Amino acid sequence: MNNTVIKTDNELVKYIKEVGESNFKKCFQCGTCSAVCPLSTEDRPFPRKEMIMAGWGMKEQLTSDLDPWLCYYCGECSKNCPRKAEPGELMMSLRRFLISAYDWTGISKLLYKSKYAEYIAILIVALGVLLEWAVIFGLHPAAGATLAQAVSPDKVDYFFDWPISAFLAIMLTSFIYNMYRKTVLSDKSVKIPFTLYFTEAWSLIVNFFTQYRYAKCDDSEESALKKLASGKYNFWLTHLFLMISYVSLFVAIVFFLDWFQSENSMPYLHIVLFDYFASIGLIFGTIYFIIKRFSKKIERSKFSHHTDWMFVTLLFLTAVTGVLLRASIVYNYTVSAIFYIYLIHLMILFPMLVIEVPFSKWSHLAYRPVAVYFANLKEKAKNLSNN
Length: 387
Ligand code: SF4
Ligand code: SF4
Fold this sequence. Notes:
The chain is mainly alpha-helical. It has 19 helices and no strands.
């Protein structure tokens, strides 16, 4: 007989209720949700298992659980749940809980609990950017200055881009290490052979760039072409397009700012990749998700947390001001117009990067592929030890 003692954490139950809209207490463990879930397996019977763990407030088990990251919120479980307990939404709430659990600073928890905390955090970073800009470039450009003199790309690199990139790298690395500790190292039933970390690295890279498990959310027998034609891949493809656009722009701004800020040189790749592809991806991608959230017609967009709204809004505004900035350079606006558009753009972009990437919704981008990688490592290590 298993004598495991279950410690109920009532605070955790309260927190999970606060950060989502699942009625997990209504669950009577019929198992329909796991049976209809296209991604759940016999070894990983989510979301039923999570329904009971959430109801009992099993903090240790939930913190070490990777499965909420393996769910892509297709909503099949919620549609078929006889108790309307919203298991898909619970998996979403658990992702929010896990982000707070990996984050040792406590900021994520604050942001998820209170929309005002999120507004204040965004405002503080935006004002910090304004202050730094005022100290470095002043509040208006000197008379007769060129764009490069008014807003030196080197100074933007030294004082804005690189410190922010270093901050993001430090935060995300430490949070992911925390995730590794809680989900892999804490599991004494499995020992990962060192070489597996390298041989399984492909799953991390492929998942990061494609998030292809989204496409598996529909497990019907139809051909991929039919699914494509009937729009079943729309969500995944839009997400993919958005993510590639975002990564392209991030790399461009951090590593090729001179080129990006150039008034004269217009290389073909530059125009195609950044002026069109990335901007269209970001603007149309965010509009698509905003419409879905307003219409609430599909399961995964039925409930929107304040962090979901903040994320799409900031991303949309970043894209729009970015396009405006690029247009102002290409179409030779006055230096002072470009100067202010640039400032406004950074006052939106940096709060999005500093707050959303490590502490909120955008951190999914890092945690999902890492979770798939960790889950693969554990599964392979178990198979090896059983053979
Ligand atoms: S289908 Fe609903 S009631 Fe049944 S186990 Fe899943 S969440 Fe619980
Ligand atoms: S939302 Fe979809 S992927 Fe997630 S648990 Fe439910 S059925 Fe599975």
